[in-house]
## 1
Amino acid sequence: MTGKLYEKSWFSTAVLGVLLSIMSAASLFVGVMDLTPADIFRGDTEKLWLLLVSRLPRLLAILCTGMGMSVAGLIMQQLCMNKFVSPTTGATISCSKFGILMALLFMQSSTLWSRAAFSFVFALLGTWLFVWFIQRIQFKDTVMVPLVGIMFSNIVNGVTSYFAYRFEMTQALSSWETGHFSMVLRGRYEIVYLALPLIVLAFIFSNHFNIVGMGKDFSQNLGVNYKFVLFLGLSIAAAITASIVVVVGSISYIGLIIPNIVAMFKGDKIRGTLVDTALLGALFVLVCDVIARVVIAPYELPIELIVGIIGSVLFIGILFRRLRHGRKAIRAIAKKGGEAA
Amino acid sequence: MKVSNLLKKYDGKAVVDSVSFEIPKGKVISLIGPNGAGKSTVMGMISRLIAKDAGMIDFDSKDISKWKSRELAKRLAILTQQNNVQMKLTVRELVAFGRFPYTGSHPTQADQKIIDQAIAYMELGEFEDRFIDELSGGQRQRAYIAMVIAQDTEYILLDEPTNNLDIYHATNMMKIVRRLCDELGKTVILVLHEINYAAFYSDYICAFKDGRIAKFGPVSEVMTKETLSEIYKVDFEILQVEGKPLTIYY
């Protein structure tokens, strides 16, 4: 039984991996400038240049974004014991944007790195404040937690807009308002790679996150330092978010829906779901990006728009499923999975 | 384990005051008393879930607060009701966490064997790949106990283990507690509301009243008409069933 289940758990990972590889390769040849695999094999230097300077960086940025945001969401959901918490609904993204604005305001010649640092510090502070608040006020209804997060996040956005307006920064900030990959070129996006070591770090500590997600008493029983792991996990989530937001801008929903979809099928043990979550996240962002590039070609839509549309529909689906059927709906899926195994 | 002069204050008011007792090894000890008598707080302080304001908890001739968390987790386990029950972990994944204090994220073959044994001991074999949120309350409780068995500690602390269980499951739970002590040689300390369960299944009873110990001793010494009436302020009758004192109150 265990052996079979083990095989099955690798099966989904393999399928996602193959799908992602195919989509990644295909996405390299979608864009305004014509580029075909034949061009590459012919050794056309101009086309190769296009591939290396624009298409490949864009692909890598997309993969890092998808993996990073969904893993950040996974960590936050586990640590907050709430399936509706994510960088979007936990105010991490909005605080991260606020940090970027602060960097623009206070450092005349802010580099990508200094903006990322500001972004990280504010994302961390904001996430901490939010988590502190929801732990202080124990909400009976789980939906209240993300609602509080959304309110908090709107307040932060309001303050950001105020300062941006006041200091005539609205235009500079607009680049981060809606996430898009059109500015991703070699030399100005590499910071998103930070997401990868952070994901590895998250994987190493995944059992700790699981234990902390079971509650304070549970952690204490197993000798796990609750506060330290909570701090570590939120820092990782904030750092991933900040490194992505500073390059791509705000991208919502990924951290919210991807971990939920994977958990429905594979449960909550992070060791078993983290890789799938990362792969599905990357696949989701990639598909959205290709749609964004194709829909009104030769122009392109900001990816945030596509992610927002698809994401909100999926989110409402998940919400209804959790609200109406409660645990029953999830049980039905799990049973199906159990029988298949 | 020896507890001496334990003190806990909330808002300047002592909820636990000069509590001292010695926990006999390899026995089942029940902490009973009315609501707010301090029994759960004492349990919390023994397990370090609650910080004590004064006093000493001597565990292997070292104060419990001086123990490293991970080392303590190999010697003493605590199970409370405050666990996240929505987490979709399989029974096996949950039980495997019991080995965490020993080998962390890299369980060995020996760990797997211990996990298998713990699952078998709690008769959870057929459920081992089911998610804990799909189980009944009684089954889930058994899964948690299996985890504690895998944790392989000398001391097991249970905070109201029969809470939210019906008579059938609660009675089974108490039988499990007895087996943990008799078959596996554990020292089990539990907080109980049901005094008859305490009387029937434990070796010692520690009765609390107003943050102090009203009476501590073998079951027969504590389960008397006078002591119980004094603690709970209601009338009691004591009956003898299978040589054990059971109570009727009205």
## 2
Amino acid sequence: MASPINKKTLEHLAQLARIELDPREEERLLHDLQKILDYFGELQALDTAGVVPLTGGTLLRNVFRDDDERRNTNRGAGTDAFPESRGRLLKVPPVFE
Amino acid sequence: MNAPAPMTSLHELTIKTFHEGLLAKKFSALEITQAFFRRIREQDRTIGAYLALHEEQAAMDAERVDVALAKDEPLGMLAGAPLAIKDLLLMKGERTTAGSKILEHYTASYDAGVIARLKAEQAIFLGKTNLDEFAMGSSTENSAFQITRNPHDPERVPGGSSGGSAAAVAAHLALGALGTDTGGSIREPAAFCGVVGLKPTYGAVSRSGLIALASSLDQIGPFAATVEDAAILFRAIAGKDPLDATSADPPDGGYGDELVHPDFERVRKLVVGVPEEYFGAGVEEDVLRSVEQARKTIESLKISFKKVSLPHTKYAVAAYYIILPAEVSANLARFDGIRYSRIPDLGPHVKNLRDIYVRSRGKGFGAEAKRRIILGTFVLSSGYYDAYYAKAQQVRALIRNDFVEAFKEVDVIFAPVTPTPAFKIGEKTADPLAMYLSDIFTIPANLAGVPAVAIPAPTPEGALPVGFQLIGKPFREADILGIGQYYERIVRGS
């Protein structure tokens, strides 16, 4: 059976994932991914008809909390860790051509 | 009671005996902290367990404990205890790299939930330990910064991904450590390095401030020299945290004193299951022999054993390496080269936002991270989602159900941690699939969300360490740690 991944699909996936690959990396990755996907094939032999998928690590159900003020939420931690800032302004690299 | 340990040797010290010695004023917290830093300077050049040392802060914190002791203030079990922290956990004001170039210059702006709890306990943090990049690996060879060597044989890997933490405890470069376990990343290195490692129940420990690998699988847990120490560390970090919505207290309230002080009469009535699927082809003879010896010792405590079956075990690795990369591709999307940390030189032809993204991620991520991000992107892509991702989630349900069924018959499951002892550095780096298969006995507990502890099994003089594993019911860490402590009393003669 032909592998579902070839050079063209790999390049497309790398674009989607926003990762630049050099030709050597691409070749190695293609080889590895084909081998790994081949291994995944053994799952197809298992009949899972009607099995309800386990979609997370816990069976806890989502609930809504009361819409009130919460303290200790690490507020501001995201901007505090920003690589470059001036006062309350965050500095980003130039992104327009 | 424990016999008093000779207090001059860090080799003999456990968290428990450190605490007793501290209260008896046999040494100060500062003296022990400084002794650890001396030993790290001597030994860690060859081992490579640490990525960063927090010497100044540690000395200040240790002095504070000594002052509290001088004033007769009450001190908890972890006060002054020098610990090592996997560099995947945020500590406010400290660099946190996840072993990756893409976070090389990132400084955390808040404490992880577990760090906040250990700070409240007045524990001492010696530094941050090495890991496979973003915890992706089983050997700590995927770190962007250095490899870590196994203290028992420098030609071999310490296991991974929490290899730095395991090696630090094994080489007496810390009294205990924290790691994370997504598919075995605490238990496998614990087994390879001959220390105790606990992966708690999914949700038992807050993941707030843990750089996420696969959110439905990740758990933070302790490494220690003894099961008792691991229990002490686990008790300190466990419990619901409002900053992690998946964290939870045990259904019957909270973790009680039984974690650290098990009732051995109760422990003896537990029934232990032996799953045939974990003892088949591919497990090395030496591993089988050591694990069987450990089993016999436990049996000699009048704990009864019973055969069980976990029939879907052989599908676990494939299901895991679909689910994990899928979550990885989403979790690692946030590393864009603009937030958190930047790559200093992106090279020519970077003209727009897209160029910054692709170049930063191309330069910032190592080979294994790229492999998993792209694999995850593939299994989630339209046309393949059902065949791979949805299928893997169904298989995950079947694997979880295997445990549910087995736990109707038994209280605890007994198994090897890994099919082989520590392998050679470089042995599996060229073959990712071979590396993935070394997790075959640890992955199922993550997929099912159940707790499991790795404990050193007896080995012949000079042989590499081997670990056995006790897997428990959800939120019943007390059962596996109870049997572990009972076992430890016999083999350590304490």
## 3
Amino acid sequence: MGVSVEVRKKVNGFSLDVAWEIGNELAVLFGYSGAGKSMTLQMIAGLMMPDEGVIRIGKETIFDSSAGINVPPQQRHLGYVFQDLALFPHMTVSENIAYGANGTGKQEKAEKVQQMIDLFYLRSLERQYPSEISGGQKQRVAFARALIRRPPVLLLDEPFSALDNPLRLEMRGLLKEIRKVFTIPIILITHDVFEAYSMAERIIVYAEGRIAQMGTPNDVFNNPRTPEVEKLVSMKEFVRITPYGNRS
Amino acid sequence: MRLSLQVASVATAFIVIIGITVAYFLARRDCRGKELIDILFTLPLVLPPTVTGYYLIILFGRNGAIGKLVYELTGWTIMFTWYAAVLASFVVALPLMIKTTRAAIESVDKDLINASYTLGHSELETTLKVILPLAKRGIVAGAVLSFARAMGEFGATLMLAGNLPGKTDTMPIAIYSLTGSGEWSKAHGMVILLTFISGAFLYLANRYSKRII
């Protein structure tokens, strides 16, 4: 199971032209804001249409401009966590999670929801509304809602950017756990150097709508191929921190 | 009083159904001529009621474009019936519903709608389970405002429905004739009643649109 993306789009003077492929791994799309990372993710999810290109999840083609294929977002069944999480404010934690379930019977749906609640440590919060729970708890609800359907891939659009540092660490740990339990490709957008280095199995560096470099974190961080990439990966704060893996 | 409530209730029922549909279309669809449609529906808000009434007579009068057809087919005309009062109230109060509902629908976070799509829900399901519940306050406020406006409708109603005692004399029209014939004490009571009712409805509309989930 992997993801392959080859898309082009021009919009308001910005031009995106990227092609990459990942296997069953955690890939980080890394780069400055406005480099086209979010746009790529939205195209994979079906929320934005490329001018041309091909997108495949595993063996399934979900978009192919030359063949006229454009599977609507509802039928792509991908897990997507938005930057602001996009929890439904008028639904409880349980209802939010259940909204993502594709179960047939009520019983089956309820069981699935219960599973996710246990898995994401959300017990006793089932009847709370998003406005009544903490930032970390909201994150877990968003993950549970995105994963209840057992999607073939999980797309994360900077879900940790609004969190303070200790919580960020906790969430990175959670993400590694998710990767272990669900064993699906995860595509994470970030412009946080440390996050990119510590989380990624593969890094895809974006710069102005193009791919500047692609490879393992060691590859990219030790041998930046362009001055642009070098600038991106040599930010000051990076020298002060140790990779997440060395901490635990 | 009873007639006024009856007219305003029926008009509001239609306003809610048509208003939500039109507002949803205006808020969520992109098409040419969209703003023209918005203007067309909003015009009765700013036109003198006599002008609105005039258009309605041209359309629905016995010799009007639609009215003539109905009269030829059924021998019935809406003119000078309480239905005409409903029609006039409907047209005049509809813009209030459309404006508030459109704003409420447009203010629903786009990410929430996209989230619903990625979670496998169709546009209809998303509308019923996400958009309308989140726009509920605006919708209720719009309906309440429209009802209050429909209660107070006078000019277009007078032109279209006339002033037939017991048949089309809604409160504003009754106040007009009572004042004309010098029955001040009766008019006085009705004015106070109508002011009180309208004030109460405005209060309700404010409360609904302000309260956050």
## 4
Amino acid sequence: MRHTISVLVENKFGVLARISGLFSARGYNIASLAVSETLDPTISCMTIVVEVQDEKILEQIKKQLNKLIDVITTIDFTKKEHVERELILVKVNYSVKDKAKLENIFDKYVGKIIQAKGNTAIIEAVGDQQQIKQLLEKLNEFGIKELIRTGRIAMAY
Amino acid sequence: MTGAEILIECLKREGVEVIFGYPGGQVLPIFDKLYDANLRFILTRHEQGAAHAADGYARATGKVGVCLATSGPGATNLTTGIANAYMDSVAMVAITGQVKSFLIGNDAFQEADVTGISRSITKHNYLVKDVKDLARITREAFHIASTGRPGPVLIDIPSDIQLAETEFIWPKEVDIRGYKPTLFGHPGQIKKAAKLIMNAKRPIIYAGGGVITSGACNELKNLVEKLQAPITWTLMGIGDFPATHKLSLGMLGMHGTAFANHAIMGSDLIIAVGARFDDRVTGRLDVFAPDAKVIHIDIDPSSISKNVRVDVPIVGDAKNILGQLVEEIKKSPDISEWLNAVEAWKKKHPLKYKDEGKIKPQYVIEQIDEATKGSAIITTEVGQNQMWAAQWYKYTLPRTFISSGGLGTMGFGFPAAMGAKVGCPDKTVIDIAGDGSIQMNIQELGTCIANKINVKVAILNNGYLGMVRQWQELFYKRRYSQVAITSPDFVKLAESYGALGIKVTKKEEVRPAIEKALKIDNTVFIDFHVEPEENVFPMVPAGEAINRIIGGLA
């Protein structure tokens, strides 16, 4: 199961290496990672999505994260009411006749064509896991040439 | 003040009495200031020796051990010692020089990414990028190293920072928002634990190194005596509780006593204090102590429910928690039947060896125990020597058994003995070594002689890397692959350094040699030629249930 964890850390060099090292040393793969400064510029927020089968391993990960001196707090969204979003950029095959069809898709999903040139269009879209998945299925009909995802960010109520 | 002066002022204010280390190009400014700093410095013969000596000093005294080395190879040579301290939760501050800030990352001469290399073997580490941070960082380093679950902290200081000047400001307090160890146990959890204890029929206390770190030996003794329950301990927990006490079962685990292993397997309640259910202790996990509920007292939340499922976790300092727990236990459970069963195991499976033929290593240790009346500080190397030293010496005091538990570092014992002797000059310090291990840091003989640090080294010389040979004998059909090892003439070697060497080949020479070594005011190597193929028993094969004990004598 995929779990989303946010880690508030000191905004200093080397902290990302400590966090990622903790995962890599135990052979856990990070599915996605988003890092940025918070309202307080001395604190960074790292949102980590990790795939673990066992609750026990998730518990160990959280404890190990908390053990790091530079970690201020961790938030596990697994059992928390929260919203999650991810931004994607998608390069798809494009011709002028597709424009209406594409724009039609964005009635249902949050996204738009940022740039269309020749036979290629770049699309940006935002959504939760499910929405992004469905949108990508739809865009697949046009032929996806390239995909970049920011990784998930999350916020609890 | 310059960075180097600030560092030395900070060390003094932290109460540092001695630094173990080695100079080099990128620590020249520090060594220049050490020249007139009035701080004791022990120049080792290898940086690994410095790290282990600082470790041994810390374990023997309970203070923070400090080691110092230059950049690149100096720092990488420290790393085994740092990893060793990390695995055994030893308070240590390691200071390394680094190439000048503006050269970092340029593959400069003697450059290594030391904060990167040491990240996973330190509790925390720092690369100092501004001299203004140095006092705060040093203060934090000592605080982090010595509080909570202790561990090594490394400070990497580029040489230009050592020379840079700033005003010295000593931070009054340390406040790290991400680091606030829990010291007091949750009262509700302590009540729950007390309830389990009062209803237990077959309780056992399982104590680890955390008891010594916390200074909780008296509180532990109060608990044992209130419950009149049997107690067993880990390798790191040796010295938690007097081995001579009638309720003591000795060490458990792979080479623990058979009765300790049977007792923990048959228990219905394990009271774990400052121990982490290591694989060498639990054996096969899914069949470990099947009927037992578990109370786990530990200062490190990540130790709890890591290996064994815990019923009542109590996070905090063992001394505080044990004190409160004893008060919460209103009436001791009636466990006389259980004690009879434990007593029967003790009678049926005593710790023993066949004392015949050549000198038996166990006999040597028994003789050392008698000659020192169980009051010496014993350090060990790793392997058979370590297990025999754990089994056959009767430790009654904390901080008298110093051994590489978690990492299992051969070559640890001799420099650790040196550090222990520096910290406790009035104590007799003996390294129980093997002929293999002693050769891994034998260069420290030079350090002992030059600094008049008189330690005794008992080499159990069997011509083999004994523990590996034992495994090859038992599990690899006696195919002895690269385990026969030659040694120099240890007597001549000791003499060449200015130490005394004694060779012992007959049983009747054992005790007189020990007595002689103890009397002489010098470092002594005693080369005991022992039975070459003696095995450490009892033994539980790796990955087996902890009561599946092999060895004819077990």
